[in-house]
Amino acid sequence: MHCWMAPREDPFTSPPSSVAATRRPSWLALIALAALALTLSLIGAEAIVRIVLPQPLTPPIRESVDGVTLLVPGVRVRYFSPGEFDVHATVNEQRFRSTKTYERIPPPETIRIVALGDSFTFSTGVEDHETYPYLLEAALQSAWPQQNFEVINAGVHGTGLGDQALWYQRTLSGFQPDIVVVTLYANDIDDEISTHRFEKTGNSVQPRSLESQRQADREISSLRSLVSSIPGYFALSQHSQLLSLIRTTATRFLLARSAARANASTDGARHQAEEHATVMIADQLMWLRNEVEGRDAHLIAVLIPAREAIDAETAEHPAAMQSRLLSGMLLKLRERTDLDVLDLETEIRAATADSASPLYFDSDIHLRAEGYQLVADEVAKRVLAGLQSRRTVKPADEP
What is the CA radius of gyration of the chain? Predict the structure, then answer.
């Protein structure tokens, strides 16, 4: 009688069944351990950054539209600076910082003002109801209760005059403002060095071709698209200081490369590039003025001085020197062309000396709510003076 026996497994050619059964879970376990290690490392790095090198949080809400940098529409985002502010900003579907939507045609008997500018017009560091354009509307309405006023906050942080002038020409002019107020700040010179929206043509400037503007933005736009495609990136940008540090480092690298391309990497070349940028800003102001006045509106150029320009101890700081460049340029324009200019250095210096609380944040470059209130009050005075001189409205005490 023969007894049948199952063939034995060769340990050298076939793995034991127990090993085969556990091989897949082992790989899964390794992947899980790697993911856990990465997560713990990121959490640790986040904690170290928050303790050792706290970072501000600025959400990525800018995008390039036909070569012009604008805000992403329809978002509410968080802005944070360690120990200074933790606020939210609303951007409506029209790309304005506002909780309301504006009709293209102003309401009857309404004086509409468009506020152009960068983060100082956007009013980084304060809530929606504390922005300078919001406060400007309130100040005007209080001073002239019988006249309706409407102020649109068209500020886009991180932009220069070139972007702002083109946005007015292409879009904002269609909202038919009676007055356009454009704010300038020291870093507009840096923006002009790194972003060329206009080119010199004889004694004036003209916008660069649409294709050249798109080409100039292609690199940064591709980078933004790549980064924004990371899952959870938008939410992380409002909460992760580690991510903010990485973004800041990358931005500084790109700016340094732009400066190198503009031959502005050495002190001498940098000074020359800043002077050239200041001349270009002056020409762009004249271009914008022609665009505004061609639509029967009035342009007011407002200079908000850098914090370092107010303090004598920081008078040689680069931002202070850029402020002086812009101030001198505006003074010459006013004398030569009668441009309506409002340089706020004197008013802010006087208010800083008289007030126990500072108008600027200590670390962040922007104004506090009190500073934006001062800007709104001074701009309101200039607007009202102009309206009275043109008799657009009557003072409250006149019949």
Answer: 28
d(CA 386, CA 391): 8
Residue pair 287/165 in contact by the 8 Å Cβ criterion: yes
Q: What is the pLDDT of residues 141-161, one digit of tens each?
A: 999 999 999 999 999 999 999
Q: Return d(Cα 352, Cα 360) in angstroms, integer.
A: 9
pTM of the model: 0.83
pLDDT tens-place string over residues 177-203: 999 999 999 999 999 998 889 999 888
